[in-house]
């Protein structure tokens, strides 16, 4: 199943959370979706905030 209209956070919510660290946001959202300490930025001292959609798929499933 391909979902093309997944719900996203509002721009106001993204702006409100943008100044907080990932761990803080993870804690206040019920501890869901954290990828773990292996996910690290490739460029230091740079911040980005936005919405994301996660997927569950089989290897090779690239429509």
Can you lay out the helices and strands and say which pair or pack?
Blueprint: H1 11-17, H2 22-28
Could you write a compact summary of the structure shown?
By secondary structure, the protein is an all-alpha fold. The protein has two helices and no strands.
Notes on the protein architecture:
The protein has 63 residues and is an all-alpha fold. The chain has helices at residues 11-17, 22-28. It is globular. The mean pLDDT is 79.
Any idea what the radius of gyration is?
Answer: 14 Å
Q: Approximately how much helix is present in the residues?
A: 10-25%
Distance N to C terminus: 11 Å
**Sheet with the most strands, sense and barrel status:** none
Order of helices and strands: HH
> Based on DSSP secondary structure assignment, what is the total number of beta strands?
0
How confident is the prediction overall: mean pLDDT? Answer: 79
Q: Which structural class should the secondary elements be placed in?
A: mainly alpha
Q: What sort of overall outline do the alpha carbons produce when their principal axes are compared?
A: globular
Put simply, the count of helices is 2
Low-confidence stretches: none
% residues in beta strands: under 5%
Please, what is the oligomeric state? single chain
């Amino acid at each position: 199943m391909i979902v093309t209209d997944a719900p996203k956070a509002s721009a106001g919510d993204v702006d409100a959370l943008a100044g907080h660290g990932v761990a803080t946001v993870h804690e206040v959202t019920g501890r869901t979706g954290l990828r773990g300490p292996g996910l690290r930025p490739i460029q230091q001292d740079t911040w980005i905030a936005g919405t994301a959609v996660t997927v569950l798929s089989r290897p090779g499933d690239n429509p």
